[in-house]
Amino acid sequence: ISVEGNVHLQAVAAAPNRITIHDNSAGDPIHHASGVGGGIDYSGTAFADIALPGGSINANHADFGAGIAVGASSDGNATLRLFSTDATHPTMLFGNVATYAGGGLRVGGGGISTHATACLFDASIGSNTAAQSGTAIDVGDGGRLFVNPQNNPECDYTAVAALGAVRCDSSSLNCNRIVINPSTSGNPGETPGVIDFTGAAQITARRVHLETNTASFVIRGLYATGASVAFSECVIDYNTVSNELVSVQGAPISFDGCTFANDSIGASTVFTWDTGLSLTRSIVAESTQVLNPSLGGVTVNYAIFNAPKLPTNSSVQFVDPRFVNAANGDFHLQATSPAIDFAPVGAESGNTDFDNRSREADLPNVANLFGARDLGAFEYPLPDEIFRNGFELPP
Fold it and tell me: String of b and e for 47-75 (b: at least 16 CB within 10 Å)?
């Protein structure tokens, strides 16, 4: 499907498994570098609302943006809104193959006055591949990616809610997952990241789970001068990377309320940067040293790290966060976790945790260390005052 100009593309299925866009190919398989958008390609002032619950955009091929490609042009801004109409069946970009960049999604660059924008609400991106950049998502210079944003005029949730959009049920395993996206490159110098971005890209990602991917990095910014990148309420676990987990060159990156755990990391540290790194109200439980003390521009506040390998301030503790079941990927907090009621509230990127629960659950029997906010992606729930101990047992 190719759309350009002042067109509104609307593909909204009211029930699961009604629409699938699959096994298409864009581009010249001999000369390459010409195919954009294996499933859907649109640019200019085109606008797309896509909700394919339970179905998917899968097994498509292109040089750039094998699943979906959103491109900017001098005509105006192109915008994608990807959502679902079923709480337990997200829209999926699955099993697409890019010769170069953007296995699942490619958000093209832009200029001073125009740009490409992708708005993702509770979507799933899995088992896509790319040879050079962004096995799951590639964002070009000036492109914009917003995942579960709040109070964003470009990605207004009320607009898609009017088309039938619903929030994902937190019990569904597929919602908000970027999972099992492998690298296909045989050249170590061209091995892609899972999410790659360049230049002045803008990325704001809330409630996203990056899990069991294989790449050079999970998040990589290359020549990212002018970029604005922030992750919050995120889970990053069980990925296998040949370098650092996160690497950003040219711009700062921030993480607030995120959980990092059980990744296989090929470098000596979890993070690397050259401009700035902020880690706030987060948990990093990795076997690799978290930070390189020789790199400046780092801010760490209200955090739990796995081991005392870096001098830092008093709001950082080196203790076991006591996850419910880390071996099986459950990084919710136990009732005895030191991460509960740890950090101050306020200045949140959003008012809910990964499960869409309130971020300000102040437990009545737990002393606040610095405030009522829990660390990591999951807020420990307030007890049910009626049923918490059953009917017969005393409180």
Answer: bbbbbbbbbbbbbbbbbbbbbbbbbbbee
